[in-house]
Amino acid sequence: MRDIYRMLAVVAALAVAGTGVLAIAQSGRADEAAARPVAAPPAVPASSTPSPSPTATPSPTPTATPAPTPAPTPAAIPSPGASIAPGYTAMEALAADRRVPKLPGRVKLRALPGKPIKTRGVIRDAKTGVSVPRLRGPWKRYGAAPFTSRQVLPPAGRSPRGMLVSCPVPIEAQKSLRDTAQLAARWTLNHHPKGAVIRWLGAQPVKKGWSLVYQVKYGKRSSVAAVVVLDAGETKPALVFVTIPDTHKKRWADIRRVTSGVRVLG
């Protein structure tokens, strides 16, 4: 009987031991499962059908706005004494110069004060192709530059010095020698005091050219001057220019001697 009780005790012990082992095994499996990383579900469920790409809407083509047509800029009116303004011819610039009045067709020269001086032959100016009367004293020859010949009167105070010069016309030659002579007269204002204006005294054709005589007023003083423009067969017409201030008023008659004595070289 005692042996039977022993056997039952052993069986009961084994049963208890088996239960513990099973519990331990199950606990290990649970721990292992808990230690495994759990994969997170996808944020967006995958779809078997691909989504169509959005169709790009073409941007509207901008319509070019025509640029406004700029208003034409009027050409500047040449100021008195200024060089030729852009877009203007030499004669248009002359017409706009208030210092030079419009030239009549012909103006007969009246007698000038004084007695015309005698001459001592001529000065042959080969560069212009003309000869100029060589005047006696008080006139005397002087260094030509920047002209091609020059004669002068003695200085008289602050007045411009009287002079007689020749050179090729220093301005744009025109088809008409009369027009060229007008432009040359305007140019001679560069050799008179500031503010000088012209008053025509004489205008007449001469052999192969034109002669213009005029008074130049500057303030209370004045000069009498003349230009003779001749076609001497050179590249540019020849210019003979004489001016005498009122401080040598008795010599004004010499101007007629000059205008009548200029010749084209033969």
TrEMBL record:
Annotated region described as Disordered, given as residue ranges: 35-82
Q: Where along the chain is composition biased (Pro residues)? A: 51-77
UniProt-recorded name of the protein: Serine/threonine protein kinase
